[in-house]
Amino acid sequence: MNFLFCSAAREFGGGERFLSLLVPELRRLGHSAALRLQSNAPSALIALQEPQDSGSAPHVVVFNGIGALYRWGPVLGTRFQASIYVHHTSLHDDQGPRWKARLRPLLLHVFSLNVGTIVRVCRASLADDFGGRRIVTVYNGVPVQAQHSPVRGADEPFVLAMIGSVNANKNQAAALQLLAMLPPAFHLKLIGGGPKFEELKISAQTLGVSERVQWTGFTKVPLDHLGACHCLLVLSKNEAFPFSALEALSVGVPVVSYDVGGLPELLGDGVGGVLVAAGQLASVRLAVLRLFEDEASRFAMATAGREKIAREFSLNTMATGFLQAAAATISRQS
Question: Radius of gyration of the chain from Cα atoms?
Fold first, then answer.
């Protein structure tokens, strides 16, 4: 199949991670995947473009994220019969102005009228009956890794990790509060940069935990840092189906997460991690203390998590699900 992926992204986030994994995998499987980007697109997406595109008309146009749907949907959605919109976020995400959150469902409904199929990355991100449209769930997936969560020496710190842009939604501030509630053996690695970076450093000093925090800044390959950690924290206020949690499980790092967005779909069975009620930092503290105190349980959880990725949330599973959705879209339009 020939795909044209449209992205209006200016920063690299979950939707862009989706493209950075899916496009090379589709090409590996023998499909054509061209990209249409904004001029100020993230460098990681620009690097995916190939100068030797076939030039053939695409079988399927893919609007990757709501920004792409707004930008190109009115033109390409009517020009090409077979089209897919990929929805990466929670429809009820309350980031930004309140009016925008209220208007988002209406705008999405209107702009998606010409789209053949809506793909959501988890069930929680979009209701089954949204707009009376055909909605297909294709869970995010990641490559299965060979590495495994490290053995922790008796005198070594227990390293908690967080991945993502440093902002109010990802809630790294809560991780600093958690660190202040934990014994000195606990350290925190913050993987990512963002608008709250310097403010967060001041908070760490105020809480007296600066010496136990490692700041990596933005990185294109979080796994380079994650593999040396013992637990991933997901304390976000809004999430859909974050790649950070999937990548942690893929290298045998258990996840302790708030039960927001699609995280219950990943961890609700207790395999690979622990879910706690959103905002309950005391419960997060208890969960990480149990992992710290019981190395055997941590390794059992890590092993089960890696097996879950291989079984249910691998890159191959994601690509297969996406190709099935594309084939069904073409079939209905032919």
Answer: 20
